[in-house]
Amino acid sequence: MLSHINAENMPTMVDVGDKVVSRREAEAMSCVSLPASVLAALNPAGELMSPKGPVFQTAIIAGTMAAKRTHELIPFCHPLPLEHISFEIQLKTETSAHVEIYCRVRVSHKTGVEMEALTGASIAALTVYDMCKALSHEMVIFDTRLLSKRGGKHEIGHS
What we know:
The chain has a 4-stranded antiparallel sheet. It has a two-stranded antiparallel ribbon with strand order 2-3. By secondary structure, the chain is α+β, with helices and mostly antiparallel strands. The mean pLDDT is 92. The chain contains 4 helices and 6 strands.
């Protein structure tokens, strides 16, 4: 039986009322390719500066806001009192220039935070695109995925 389908075959939110509260963590990532015209906007401090302002700082703020509002965006996600959200943005230039955006989320609750981590990473990537589209439309968002989750019934990866 599917977890989000009830006995009448109708969509429903999973009842987590009987689950035990535990510490739950998740990490997700998303990448954005950066063409040369975007890389040219990189300042000596390692921040991309676009006509809209500091790209990475804005992406972190947008990703944080999105992770906190995941339940408003994804049907059947429970509203969660997130205890921690952090981002790491790494510029990679070895083979193809891109940024890797990592979002880590933690909560003590009855359900996991993988959707919050994925939403945070995704919206941060979309924000990089939005902030840089005046410089180029040749960016590509790719490799959005869950890297790890801990706590609850199923654990994957490492944190």
